[in-house]
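Late entry, evening session. Most of the bench is empty. Finally got around to the prediction I had been postponing all week. Sequence below, unchanged from the version circulated by S.P.
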Amino acid sequence: MKKPVGLENNEISIGTAVDRISRYANTMTAIVDIYNEGKPEEERLPTDFVKGFWIPKDDIEGLYNMAAELRKLSAISGDVNGCRVYLGMDENYQMTLSINATEFGSEVIDDVEVELSKDIIVDGLVAENGVGLDETSTGIFDFIEPCPENCDPNSVLMEPYATDGECKDCK
């Protein structure tokens, strides 16, 4: 079977994925252990940090549909070309993702025009153009479902989190 266009140069091996995940798991565990050392329980960071995210297909499609509608209404000028994910942390020190669509664009930097993917941040622009979102809309979304709550406990990619052969946080 032929790989979908655009994916042929981005695929990595299972070994590479497991190595990267192991490095992340070991680093996060070390950071949390160092931070928590000697602190009272109420000041400690949780040890069950986020291991991955599941992003529903309908949410990704909805993000692109919103951006395409903005393009039709001339609220954005470039072609929708992807999405960008920013890492964050919630009030419980768990990793979060802020996701927004991007458009093809360019900017002049040091007198040179540079092509880039620009974030589509609407911040009220949507309501003015009638897409149907209210004036509080930003175009930035958090529709991820974090793992451990939404893990595949049988995935080889969960092996770096296993203790005694089992992923203690998988459900």
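Two things to note before I forget:
The chain has a mean pLDDT of 78.
The longest helix spans residues 14-36.
Will write this up properly tomorrow.
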